[in-house]
Amino acid sequence: MMNVIIFSKDRACQLELFLRSMKEMWKECMDDQKVNISVLFTASKDRYWDGYYKLINKGSPVPLVLMQKQESFKIDVLSLVNPAFKHTVFFVDDMVWKEPFSLECEEFKEFESRDDVLCLSLRLHPKLPYCYVTDKEQKIPKIEDGVFDWTGANGDYGYPMSLDGHIFRTEDILPLLKIEKYANPNELEAWLSGYEFKFFKKRPCMVCCEKSPVMNVPLNQVHEGWVNRHGRFPAKYLNDNFLKGFVISMDEIRGFKNKSCHQEVDIKLEKA
To answer: Buried b / exposed e across 121-151, counting CB within 10 Å, b at 16+?
Structure first.
């Protein structure tokens, strides 16, 4: 079994797209014998809560998803990570699935079979010359059969502790989740990324797929205190349209050939 935890704030419309695209692209996401999917959500205003309640009431695109309202972030995260499940993966709500993926793929088997591999990245692939977050070019490391050394890499290739679709061994990630204080996904990722060399010297490798199953589509920013690059579709605009019955189309996303883990897409809204 795998813990699948999705973080969401003020983005019911984007969360709906993530879940809908996951249902289309991830073979096992509807199999509750293989994955246990949870959404930890919160909102800053009533209208955003209304978006989540609409998503819950009309039914999630993936029916078996647990929708959990955030009360205390760290306590909630720990409650959702079942230590009995072998693997754990985190996602955020501005991600989308764009390519098919299965736990039966060779990359997942490679991850499972090698003790020197820290994680399987679903957002990386061998042709990402640009890092959107830093607005800089990044050197693509030597990648053989999907495996590369993250310890000597830069940009996104040198960032193994991402919460954006990196599959970890639960025995690796759970002890770290218990140590530090953190109140949101940004703080959690910052804490994790500061300790990868300390805790994972014996796992210097990552695995990625030939085509990344997921990517971040940075349409807006919702977390206060963190300045991130983003596009021109405010959360309010998307939420208001979601409440009116519109969703984000998959037509511009399906099979998208991204050159960065984060990439803006000129989305379109359509009637649900």
So the answer is: bbbbbbebebbbeeeeebebbebeebbbebb
Helix axes 235-243, 12-25, angle to 10 degrees: 80
Q: What is the DSSP letter of 141?
A: P
Q: Which domains does the chain have, with CATH numbers?
A: 2-261 (3.90.550)
Phi–psi pair at 220, nearest 5 degrees: -165, 180
Task: Please answer whether residues 65 and 33 qualify as being in contact, where contact means their C-beta atoms are separated by less than 8 angstroms.
Answer: no
Helix (H) or strand (E) holding 7: strand 2-9
Q: How confident is the model at residue 231 (pLDDT cuts 50, 70, 90)?
A: low
The 10s digit of each residue's pLDDT in 233-253 is: 899 999 999 999 999 999 999
For the entire predicted model, the pTM comes to 0.96
